[in-house]
């Protein structure tokens, strides 16, 4: 298996930071340079035409026990072969053999215990992204467990509802492991969310989005920082699939599980979507939009009402960002309206009430950057330093609230920012108030070159050491990560 140390001298060195330029995030209508760059690499011959395969729904894990006030799961991390491209068996890394990873449903106040057995050849660490968990259950980058061993994680779920997800976090390996499949959804609900008349059951559909690169045999190709090569878009593990819907409202739980790719999503007819939630659960109020943006690891909770379309309509969910051409990365999935159905669901004008942020006692300034000078081994940097597992970069007093001003110091490379343990509030973006999509609780926030966001976080649960990092996982594997300690 390729690891960070064996690839930094390869494609990354050959191209420097050019793989992650602003051009990589250009609108697809102006993507000629991305098309030319992609032509230099091997092509994914077996990828079928868009909408040739059906999008599956994600499997839901079942606990082996519900006794003692907790749900207990046994999960095996293993390599298997699965059909992603028609006619090809692709080797992938999985939780319990599922690609993409399964859904684990949990409830606030009810304990979940997950015993993971590592049956692959590399160490792993399982991080519950967005979870308020103790340090020993966080899946920290160096807190790994070896091949042939097992590790038990306990989640008390003492936080409000949120669409969390879990993924590998073993440092230097997290990028490749997640790319090859080690991620899954953890949908935490509570009484507030459950009481709302939102679409539910078969009309609530988790969708994991990502990109991939395949060789001519249909195997995943992993090269670090390979944003121009990963031009096959997968929705729930299938390339640009179709999904049959009824002419009624659906709730889509969108997750960008890509390592590097940003999505800007819209309906092909310009139709409206209603966004009701983000990383940290429901927004206070829904808002109507014609586009939804997701950087890697971000989530969006979106309702689409297909009752406005007659049966027989086909509507494409499009992506309007590169790298790649519209034919390669512009078609995410197609909704096929195939029947009518009754619809008792509705979207209330008020979804929840969030408390006002507490007074902040400390302000910090954080800079994200990476080498853009074409050096053979570009570094990912947090405040100008590569991550050191033994160095404490920020010390925080337990129980306090702080404002962090986070800046992408690069002129070319996009980043985003993820903080373990806490859900934060986005106060400002580039000096202006946060928009409606960032008005709720967040744990990951995008930062295009030169952008600055101001965040408010409260550290009133666990004490211990956690990390914050760029969640373009290729960047964090290159060192764009730092430690904070709450004491």
CATH arch. level architecture of the largest domain: Sandwich
CATH fold label of the largest domain: Immunoglobulin-like
Task: Report the uncertain regions.
Answer: 1-24, 28-40
| Shape verdict | globular
CATH level 1 class label of the largest domain: Mainly Beta
Radius of gyration: 21 Å
What is the tally of helical segments?
7
- What is the number of strand segments? 32
Q: How are the strands of the largest sheet arranged?
A: 11-10-9-13-18-15-16
Distance between the termini: 39 Å
Helix content: under 10%
Largest sheet: 7 strands, mixed
Q: List the domain count as a whole number.
A: 3
Chain-averaged pLDDT:
92
The CATH homology group name of the largest domain: Cupredoxins -  blue copper proteins
Write up this protein.
- The protein is mainly beta and 487 residues long.
- Mean pLDDT is 92; it is low at 1-24 and 28-40.
- A hairpin with a 2-residue loop joins strand 10 (232-235) and strand 11 (238-239).
- The longest helix is centred in the N-terminal third of the chain and has 7 residues, at 32-38.
- 50% of the residues are buried.
- The chain starts with a helix and ends with a strand.
- The protein has helices at residues 4-7, 11-15, 32-38, 174-179, 191-194, 326-329, 473-477, and strands at 70-82, 90-95, 103-107, 111-118, 126-129, 150-155, 162-168, 183-189, 204-212, 232-235, 238-239, 242-247, 249-256, 263-267, 273-278, 281-289, 292-294, 299-305, 314-319, 331-340, 362-370, 380-382, 394-396, 400-408, 415-419, 424-429, 432-433, 441-442, 444-447, 452-459, 464-469, 481-486.
- The strands form six sheets. It has a seven-stranded mixed beta sheet, with no helix packed on it. Strands 21, 22, 24, 26, 27, 28 and 30 form a seven-stranded mixed beta sheet that branches.
- 7% of the residues lie in helices and 40% in strands.
- It is built from seven helices and 32 strands.
- The chain has three domains: 28-49 and 197-340, Immunoglobulin-like (Sandwich); 67-194, Immunoglobulin-like (Sandwich); 362-486, Cupredoxins -  blue copper proteins (Immunoglobulin-like, Sandwich).
């Amino acid at each position: 298996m390729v690891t960070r140390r064996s690839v930094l001298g390869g494609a990354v060195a050959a191209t420097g930071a050019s793989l992650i330029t602003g051009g990589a995030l250009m609108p697809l209508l102006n993507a000629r340079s991305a098309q030319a760059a992609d032509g230099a690499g091997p092509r994914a011959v077996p990828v079928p035409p868009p909408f040739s395969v059906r999008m599956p729904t994600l499997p839901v894990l079942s606990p082996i026990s519900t006794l003692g006030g907790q749900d207990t799961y046994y999960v095996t991390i293993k390599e298997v072969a699965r059909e992603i491209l028609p006619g090809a068996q692709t080797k992938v890394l999985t939780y319990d053999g599922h690609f993409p990873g399964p859904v684990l449903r949990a409830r606030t106040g009810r304990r979940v215990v997950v015993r993971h057995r590592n049956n692959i050849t590399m160490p792993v660490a399982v991080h519950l992204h967005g979870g308020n968990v103790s340090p020993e259950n966080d899946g920290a980058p160096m807190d790994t467990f070896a091949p042939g061993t097992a590790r038990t994680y306990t989640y008390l779920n003492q936080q409000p509802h949120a669409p969390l997800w879990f993924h590998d976090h073993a440092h230097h390996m997290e990028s490749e492991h997640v790319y090859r499949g080690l991620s899954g959804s953890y949908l935490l609900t509570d009484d507030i969310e459950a009481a709302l008349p939102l679409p539910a059951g078969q009309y609530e559909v988790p969708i994991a989005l990502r990109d991939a690169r395949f060789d001519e045999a249909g195997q995943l190709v992993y090269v670090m920082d390979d944003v121009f090569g990963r031009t096959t878009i997968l929705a729930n593990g299938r390339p640009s699939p179709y999904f049959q819907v009824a002419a009624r409202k659906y709730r889509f739980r969108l997750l960008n599980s890509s390592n590097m790719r940003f999505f800007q999503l819209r309906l092909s007819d310009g139709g409206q979507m209603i966004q009701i939630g983000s990383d940290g659960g429901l927004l206070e109020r829904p808002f109507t939009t014609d586009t939804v943006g997701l950087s890697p690891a971000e989530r969006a909770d979106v309702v689409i009402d297909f009752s406005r379309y007659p049966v027989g309509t086909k509507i494409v969910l499009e992506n309007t960002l590169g790298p790649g051409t519209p034919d390669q990365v512009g078609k995410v999935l197609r909704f096929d309206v195939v029947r009518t159905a009754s619809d008792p669901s509705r979207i209330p004008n008020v979804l929840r009430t969030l408390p006002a942020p507490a007074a902040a006692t400390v302000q910090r300034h954080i800079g994200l950057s990476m080498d853009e000078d074409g050096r053979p081994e570009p570094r990912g940097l947090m405040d100008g330093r590569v991550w050191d597992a033994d160095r404490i970069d920020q010390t925080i007093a337990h129980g306090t609230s702080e404002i962090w001003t986070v800046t992408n110091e690069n002129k070319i490379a996009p980043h985003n920012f993820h903080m373990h343990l806490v859900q934060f509030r986005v106060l400002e973006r580039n000096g202006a108030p946060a928009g409606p999509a960032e008005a709720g609780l967040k744990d990951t926030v995008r930062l295009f070159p030169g952008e600055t966001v101001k965040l408010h976080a409260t550290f009133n649960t666990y004490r211990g050491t956690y990390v914050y990092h760029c969640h373009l996982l290729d960047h964090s594997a290159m060192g764009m990560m730092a430690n904070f300690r709450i004491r």
